[in-house]
């Protein structure tokens, strides 16, 4: 595998909060995404996930408590823990999560993109 320019990979993403798997380590996927100030709904995962902020700030609500993760900081969300992204998060985020979670998210994202494509008007 070659060197991955993480910030460039985040910049190349089609939209904020979409992610790209950069590589796999054991049973975990290492993903990058770009945050854009908007909140993300609460979620829970069957496995723990690590959230590493490369630049910017990640504003979380974890079990209803506010958590701020700054540049160069990491927060590990325990399995089954309710967490949401609060407004104001921006920058580049690396997520390390169990492969099954990453695959399920990739499938859901592909389905959403296919639905969006199907809804676009076509030239005739």
What does this structure look like?
The protein is an alpha+beta fold and 124 residues long. The chain has two helices and eight strands. The protein has helices spanning 6-11, 99-119; strands at 19-25, 28-36, 40-43, 49-62, 65-69, 74-77, 83-85, 90-98. Strands 1, 2, 3, 4, 5, 6, 7 and 8 form an eight-stranded antiparallel β-sheet that branches. Strand 1 and strand 2 (28-36) form a beta hairpin. The model has no long low-confidence stretch (mean pLDDT 87).
The overall pLDDT, averaged over residues, is 87
Secondary structure category:
alpha+beta
What's the story with the biggest beta sheet?
8 strands, antiparallel
Helix content: 10-25%
Run of helices and strands:
HEEEEEEEEH
Nutshell version of this structure?
By secondary structure, the protein is α+β, with helices and mostly antiparallel strands. 22% of the residues lie in helices and 44% in strands.
What brief labels describe this structure?
about 120 residues, alpha+beta, 8 strands
SSE layout:
Blueprint (H helix, E strand, L loop, with lengths): L5 H6 L7 E7 L2 E9 L3 E4 L5 E14 L2 E5 L4 E4 L5 E3 L4 E9 H21 L5
Antiparallel strand pairs: 1-2, 2-8, 3-7, 4-5, 4-6, 4-7, 4-8
């Amino acid at each position: 595998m070659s060197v991955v320019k993480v910030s460039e990979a985040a910049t190349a993403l089609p939209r904020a909060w979409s992610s790209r798997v950069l590589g796999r380590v054991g049973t975990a996927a290492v993903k990058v995404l770009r945050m854009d100030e908007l909140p993300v709904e609460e979620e829970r995962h069957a496995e723990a996930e690590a959230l590493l902020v490369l630049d910017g700030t990640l504003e979380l609500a974890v079990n209803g408590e506010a958590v701020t993760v700054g540049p160069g900081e990491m927060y590990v969300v325990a399995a089954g823990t309710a967490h949401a992204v609060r407004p104001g998060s921006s920058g580049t985020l690396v997520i390390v999560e169990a492969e099954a979670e990453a695959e399920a998210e990739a499938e859901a994202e592909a389905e959403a993109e296919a639905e969006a494509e199907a809804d676009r008007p076509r030239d005739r």
